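Hi team,

Below is the intake form for F-box domain-containing protein from Gossypium anomalum. Please confirm the fields before the structure is written into the shared record.

FORM ID: S-0412
PROTEIN: F-box domain-containing protein
ORGANISM: Gossypium anomalum
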Amino acid sequence: MDDVMSRDLISDLPQSIIESILTRLPIRDAVRTSILSSKWRYKWATLTQLVFDEKCVILSNDRCKVEDGLVNFITRTLFLHQGPIHKFQLTTTHLQCCPDIDQWLLFLSRNDIKELVLELGEGEWFRVPSCLFNCKKLTRLDLFRCEFDPPPSFKGFLCLKSLNLHQVLVSPEAIESLISGCPLLESLALSYFDSLALTIRAPNLKFLCLEGEFKDICLENTPLLVAMSVAMYMTDDIAEHFEQSSTCNFNRFLGGVPRLERLIGHIYFTKFLSIGDDVGRLPITYAHLKVVELNQVSFEDMKEILVVLRLITNSPNLKELQISGSSNTLAAIDAPDLDFWEDECPSNCTFKQLRVVRMTDMSGVPHEMEFIKFLLANSPALETMSISPCVYVMDGRLNMLIELLRFRRASAQAEILFIQD
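The structure came back. Fields below:
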């Protein structure tokens, strides 16, 4: 029994299990295991995943001391490392344009790096060195606050599956070329770009997240897309550019995504889709679309309402719908004739799968109420409809509630929740 108790069972575990244990530790603690015994001195040195942040060093009010400590720790870790490094992640607010980062990336480019995450803080932007574009085995690339300028000879990352660019200085041409040059790309996130016009060609793309000031977005070749989230911020210049457009943004953006399952549109999204010619009959049916969330829909704008109707009436398997309003109450009260709903809503429309509807920031203006009435009358499987009035609507809440209770419901089980904060 004493022999069993005295044996070092952990040290005798297979290297793969030890590496799995060490990978779950902060890198600083993993390196410190080298003091346990001679057997453990270099066990950490074969880790294929290295994640560095400011916890690697003792924090101090002396910024230079923290920077020097972090640089020395990372440099020494890489110098003593043995074998391939498949993942390198650096998250820090202390190192913006540290020249040592260039040397680390050069080292990584020679060590089969597959996942690279650089999340740098405020300050001067880090310019990505050319050696990054020699990382032929990259499957994931996340860059935060960097300058990104691929050389003319760069043809793309042939193995890349995930690309996340956040506050990255790069030309639209370079982004489009990069996306097109990644034939296996499945996940794309672009955030905090200014006045960007973008055409996305990515035949294997499944997940898309866009956030920023976009002058134009076109999904030209994304047939496998299943989920997207889009937030558009609109300056006066971009708004003027939109108003002068004649092409149908709805078709250019949603006309080629037949496998879409989840759609989240934030600020100005439905406004963007409504620009251009009348969408008319849609070229596709969204047979897989189950969840739709549209924020800040202007119910005084008939083209925006039409966008919402075209989208949901062409989604036969829709299960969950969430819409927030942003109506100019005075303009919405003076809205055009309500015959619009009889003219534009198909008489045989039925939302057979729709179970949950959430309507927030509602003002109770005519077209909002007609939209709610339309949903209730054509959703036989509806379980819950929750309605939250806009904070600016106080006097009209009772009238809104009375009108809601008069609407016919296709579902006998449908419960209306009138939520007042």
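SUMMARY LINE: The longest helix spans residues 63-80.

Thanks, M.
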